[in-house]
Amino acid sequence: MSSAILRQASAVARAASRSCAFSTSAVARKDLVQELYLRELKSYKPPPQAQDAHVGVVKNFQQPPAPQPPTLPADLASELSAYDAAEPTFAASAKPAESEESSGPTGAESFLAFLEADEPKAEAHH
């Protein structure tokens, strides 16, 4: 008798699993975790803040002092005439100028010569 009940129960379970395996109803498509999350978000109430919560955290604003305008020197004319009379100083050249024929190719010419040069052949290691 118990085997007959077990056979009937297994047959009902198989039939139910075949018919409900690919359910597309709206109830089956609900995301329970998302619903719980959204419900908790909607019901969340942040604790009220005290009116003086900012004290000690925010500094009081103090406007910086106004800048002072620059002042012109009293004897501006004499300083300008001294500047005009001064001889300009030039930086001394590091090396004397040489002719290009004696120094060889420089700049772009030497770079192009380097690019056109043959690569050294690798030695065979034994």
Automatic annotation (TrEMBL):
PANTHER family: ATP SYNTHASE SUBUNIT H, MITOCHONDRIAL (PTHR28207:SF1). Pfam families: ATP_sub_h. The lineage of its organism: Eukaryota, Fungi, Dikarya, Basidiomycota, Agaricomycotina. Residues 87-126 are annotated as: Disordered. This is ATP synthase complex subunit H. One of its GO terms (molecular function) is proton-transporting ATP synthase activity, rotational mechanism.
